[in-house]
Design goal:
Number of strands: 11
Number of helices: 27
Protein name: Intron maturase
Helix content: 40-55%
Radius of gyration: 38 Å
Shape: globular
Pfam families: Intron_maturas2
Oligomer: single chain
Structural class: alpha+beta
Organism: Abeliophyllum distichum
Largest sheet: 4 strands, antiparallel
Strand content: 5-15%
Distance between the termini: 61 Å
Length: 744
């Protein structure tokens, strides 16, 4: 109302001053002219102002009620803080059945955070919260209300509550042919579907991460293939028989009832369950191109570079695409069920978690310890003694040896190690086949679950597990202090990278040709790139390959082989590009690591040095790891028992420190040992300072001079030392510091 009065009064005054603006624009003249004409003001204007102010005075004002549909009033906290609170609550009570997930589904902060994530994937740039427009927030609120009111439909093609910032399509002006193509052909997942999937993932992931088994490593934050290899090196050292199972058929799809029943084991929220059930049951529109509709591609001699749009993200670089091609068989398949999208891997882990729990029960059932064993002779079998990479000197299995099994799962692939006779492995395989048939209705046979001995080599994640027999010299002190040296027999579990699999992956990427004697092939995709850019791309590829084979025993050998293939491929490329005929000539001009410019055909000429120093040419980095001595050593860092990812460690440490019992236990421990905490020590110092300072202020008017102040400080220090028995041995430096403080 005040704004209305102000605007109307301003418009009235403005209309009155238009007359004066024609004669003179000076403000003093305008004011004097207004005062002269004040008496002859029109009666209509006075009536207008009187009525206006009478109406404003008679109006009653009340406090503005916040609009429940205003996005700014609904966003009370940060989305990251809400997610952190969810992780803490679920890790504090991991076995509690969750029933109130709809409350988190109402939180607009989570929807804004999901919008930021999906926009980052869509546009390739992170959108801060302050950059989100008002219209986008209103559309997000409309999408949230549609989900809560059961008005949201998965896989919508033309009706959207919110659209991508990149989507500039005017759907109202589309022709019937384009609309028919949108409705009947395969289309990417809608933008609003990905937002809902992201919100469901943020809500469900904390619930199940605290419940999942520690023997599952795929599709989980903080766990990867390197974690599996380190666990194998630590825990699978003493096993002789292995069962390698491929259950990846379950990742292609499961019955909706089985997924929902596994989900309802821990979550009893009807809104979330119905939303996921609708995502699984809604049909996905897919279409195949007919043979008659296929257009023959014309070979072009030269291919123009495609110019990206302003809002189009850059594609993955060549080195990253090449590394993705090296994904092992166990990590290639990513589940995608219905319209669940990024939620599918979590649902797959939820379904397979029952298999993990069943195997953990079998581990306890099969465990039979032996007192004569070097390790694994504790009551639970988890306590390790000695070096786990050297479990036994005599690794034979007999009635006097410990019988034990271990298990890990990476996605749909399982690896089971058995220490004992082969009959134990056959019994376990039979029980596993029956469990998968009853629980998942998955038909397995002995061929899909083969039993292999460690001497044949077990392939897992493109690494071979094998056994090496060593004969070390054992020295020990006998009775009488005599040192005895004896030859012993020991075994080591070797985790080596498979050279055969490496060649297979290079052949798949068209880097080599042949199996026994692989011949490098030129990578013509980098034909139009400069030498500096090509070398830089291949160096990045070699860097990630060095990291991938970090825990392989033959890391130096396998990385040096990769460097040889890349270097030979680039040499053939440069020979074809600069017409040098052979790799030998390329190495002669460009050196072993191809760091010299090949375009000049003069090697490292003075002109190139001068141009490089002036910054007129691009510096060329040579290829890395051209010699085996340049490859780093294998990482043999011990893997701790009960390992947890960093984010789970932080959560558990926060919960431990936030618990009041922890503080009381620490204080009681300090009191029992006669120690004092730093907080108590600081508070004692502050209290003594306050007492001494007050006393100095009272006597400073009576006692004058520096000597009197010093004696007074020493007296008060002595009284404080008498009252505090724990400060009797205080040094003279602390006394002098106290005196200086008292003087100040």
């Amino acid at each position: 109302m005040h704004r209305t009065v102000k605007l109307l009064s301003y418009s009235g005054l403005r209309s009155r001053t238009k007359v004066f603006s024609k004669t003179n624009h000076h403000p003093i003249f305008l004011i004097s002219q207004w005062n002269n004409n004040l008496s002859c003001r029109n009666s209509n204007v006075s009536v207008y102002f009187r009525a206006l102010f009478t109406h404003s005075s008679s109006t009653t004002y009340s406090r503005r009620v916040p609009d429940p549909n205003d996005p700014s009033t609904l966003m009370k906290e940060d989305g990251v803080a809400v997610c952190s609170q969810m992780w803490i609550e679920n890790f504090q009570e991991p076995n509690k059945t969750v029933t109130n997930l709809t409350n988190y589904l109402r939180r607009l902060e989570l929807w804004v955070l999901a919008y930021q994530k999906v926009c980052a994937d869509e546009t390739g740039a992170y959108m801060p919260r302050s950059a989100i427009t008002r219209s986008a927030l209103e559309d997000l609120l409309a999408l949230r209300n549609a989900v809560l009111d059961d008005r949201f439909k998965w896989g919508a093609r033309l009706q959207f509550f919110i659209r991508s910032p990149k989507d500039k399509t005017d759907y109202e002006s589309l022709s019937k042919r384009k609309i028919r193509a949108i409705l009947t052909t395969t289309q990417p997942s809608p933008f609003q579907d990905r937002i809902v999937q992201e919100v469901l993932l943020m809500i469900l992931e904390p619930v199940y991460e605290g419940r999942f088994s520690q023997r599952s490593f795929a599709f989980r934050p903080g766990r990867n293939a390197h974690t599996v290899l380190r666990v194998i090196r630590r825990s699978f050292a003493g096993y002789l028989w292995y069962i390698k199972g491929d259950l990846s058929a379950m990742l292609d799809g499961m019955k909706v009832g089985m997924v929902i029943s596994s989900l309802m084991r821990d979550v009893r929220d009807k809104k979330v369950i119905d939303l996921i059930k609708a995502a699984l049951t809604t049909p996905v529109i897919t279409s195949k191109v007919d043979d008659g509709d296929k257009i023959k591609k014309k070979k072009r001699k030269y291919q123009k570079k495609r110019v990206l749009a302003e809002d189009e993200p850059k594609p993955d670089p060549y080195w990253l695409e090449s590394f993705f091609g090296f994904a092992p068989e166990e990590a290639e398949l990513l589940p995608s069920w219905g319209h669940c999208g990024i939620l599918s891997p979590l649902l797959a882990n939820i379904c397979l978690d029952e298999l993990d729990r069943w195997m953990e029960d079998k581990i306890k059932e099969f465990y039979r310890p032996s007192k004569s064993d070097v390790i694994w002779n504790s009551s639970d079998g988890d306590t390790e003694q000695g070096n786990t990479s050297w479990p036994e000197f005599v690794p034979t299995s007999g009635p006097d040896k410990t019988r034990k099994i271990d298990y890990i799962r990476y996605g749909g692939h399982v690896l089971i190690g058995i220490r004992g006779p082969r009959a134990d492995a056959a019994t376990l395989r039979k029980q596993l086949i029956e469990f998968c048939d009853q629980k998942y209705m998955l038909k397995l046979d002995n061929e899909s679950l083969p039993i292999e001995h460690i001497t044949k080599g077990i392939m897992f994640l493109d690494h071979v597990l094998c056994r090496r027999v060593v004969y070390p010299t054992l020295r020990y002190t006998a009775t009488g202090g005599k040192i005895i040296s004896e030859k012993g027999v020991g075994t080591l579990l070797s985790v080596t990278a498979s050279l055969k699999q490496c060649i297979k992956q290079f052949r798949k990427l068209s880097f080599v040709k042949g199996d026994r004697d692989p011949d490098p092939q030129p990578c013509f995709r980098m034909f139009h790139a400069t030498q500096a850019h090509t070398n830089s791309q291949m160096n990045k590829f070699l860097s990630v390959m060095v990291e991938w084979y970090r825990y392989a025993d033959n890391r130096k050998k396998i990385v040096n082989f990769c460097s040889y293939i890349i270097r030979g491929s680039l040499a053939k490329l440069y020979a074809a590009k600069y017409k040098l005929r052979s790799r030998a000539k390329v190495y002669k001009i460009g050196s072993r690591n191809l760091s010299r410019p090949l375009k000049e055909k003069k090697g490292q000429s003075p002109e190139y040095h001068n141009l490089l120093r002036m910054g007129l040419v691009e510096s060329i980095d040579g290829l890395q790891y051209t010699r085996m001595s340049l490859v780093p050593e294998t990482d043999y860092t011990p893997f701790p028992v009960g390992w947890r990812p960093d984010h789970e460690k932080a959560l558990l440490e926060y919960m431990r420190l936030d618990n009041p019992k922890t503080l009381e236990e620490e204080r009681s421990c300090l009191r029992d040992q006669g120690l004092i905490s730093p907080q108590d020590y600081v508070s004692m110092l502050v209290w003594n300072y306050k007492r001494n300072a007050v006393a100095v202020d009272q006597l400073s008017s009576v006692l004058t001079g520096e000597n009197s102040i010093k004696t007074m400080g020493s007296e008060f220090l002595s009284t404080s030392n008498d009252e505090n028995s724990n400060q009797k041995n205080r040094s003279e430096e602390d006394k002098e510091e106290r005196i200086r403080v008292a003087q100040m």
